[in-house]
Specification:
Keywords: DNA-binding, Repressor, Transcription, Transcription regulation. With 342 residues, this protein is of the alpha/beta class. The protein contains 12 helices and 13 strands. The strands form 2 sheets. The protein has a 7-stranded mixed beta sheet, sandwiched between helices. Helix 1 crosses helix 2 and helix 1 packs across helix 3. The termini are far apart.
Length: 342
């Protein structure tokens, strides 16, 4: 088996230069090419275990995810994995399905494997296992939900502001009754989006009865049922859907009933752009910055890991991107076709 000393000799550089390069340090292009060629010729493989023992780093991070079917989570995880790969770290992925017992078990397994840091998706600081996070001594980043702990940094989208902005424009367009398909209110993101809509209704000076809320469970089926309930059960022609999955079901119900968005139905939704382009007229959408959030969470975590310091409780907020389209009558023409941060 080839050694790092043999690689250094063949490349014509020092052993320290080879080690720094293989651990992610920048070197001159000529040096990089020489080391890569020597590694390929000798078939060299690093002894990561030995390196971890010396540095007391496993060069791995744990990702603990509530719902792996969540479109936001999968998109953010892809960005995190890419950033970790660039830093020569691997990820260990585990899910907990909103179950505190599973959360505790999976968190314990990640800590047993000596991960250098952890990214939580929709973790809940109120759960008793959350104390394991605080006692671990490693940096922890919470994505999507602020984690109320001085030992955890959080990265979130400003869901309340974007929901308020879209609902405000729907009401300004002259629609005084608004239906909302909202997600489970025990979860931070869902409650923030609905609260933003409520704020827009209050700012418009409309009575509380102007807002009708259908609570779904993020599934396509609940979005479908919500659209039917609001339109056929309550006679509404203006609907705001607060989730991507439910939005798919709602638009299925729209299509099956032959409704034309922007004529028969005023509609806006959270989306990730792949769905909105299928409809005409185009749909006003709110797109959470999944890539930016995932990239920031990963890079920030690696900064803390490399510095050997814990998180400090800071919260970083990213604005959503709103793309305005003629999906509800009366929309300000100046908005059409524009994309803006909430």
């Amino acid at each position: 088996m080839a050694t790092i000393q043999q690689v250094a000799a063949l490349a014509g550089v020092s052993t320290g230069t080879v080690s720094r390069y293989l651990n992610g340090a920048r070197v001159k292009d000529a040096t990089k090419e020489s080391i890569d060629a020597a590694v390929a010729e000798l078939g060299y493989h690093r002894n990561l275990l030995a390196g971890s023992l010396r540095s007391r780093k496993s060069r791995s991070v744990g990702l603990l995810v509530n719902n792996m079917l969540n479109h936001f989570a999968t998109s953010a995880i892809a960005a995190i994995e890419r950033e970790m790969e660039l830093g020569n770290y691997i990820i260990l992925l585990a899910g907990f399905r909103n179950d505190p017992a599973v959360f505790e078990q999976k968190l314990g397994l990640l800590l047993d494997r000596q991960v250098d840091g952890i990214v939580l998706f929709e973790g809940d600081a109120a759960w008793s296992p959350g104390r394991l996070v605080e006692r671990s001594g490693i940096p922890v980043i919470s994505v999507s939900s602020p984690y109320d702990s001085p030992c955890v940094d959080s990265v979130v989208a400003d869901s309340r502001a974007s929901a308020r902005r879209v609902a405000r424009e729907m009401l300004r367009a002259g629609h005084e009754r608004l239906g909302v398909i909202a997600g489970p209110q025990h979860e931070h993101v869902s409650s923030e989006r609905l609260e933003g809509v409520r704020e827009a209704v209050a700012e418009a000076g409309l009575p509380e009865g102007s807002l009708t809320v259908y609570l779904g469970d993020y599934s396509r089926e609940s979005g479908y049922a919500g659209l039917v309930d609001l339109v056929e059960g309550h006679g509404l022609d203006t609907v705001f859907c607060c989730n991507y999955g439910m939005g798919q079901g709602a638009l299925q119900a729209v299509a099956e009933r032959g409704l034309v968005i922007g004529e028969d139905l005023n509609y806006a939704s959270y989306d990730y752009f792949d769905l909105a382009s299928l409809f005409y007229p185009r749909i006003t959408t709110i797109c959470p910055p999944t890539g930016a959030i995932g990239t920031y969470a990963a890079s920030h975590l690696l900064e803390l890991v490399e510095a050997g310091v814990p998180a400090s409780g800071e919260v970083t907020t990213f604005p959503d991107l709103i793309t305005w389209q003629p999906s509800f009558t009366g929309i300000d023409p100046a908005l059409l076709g524009r994309s803006e941060e909430a």
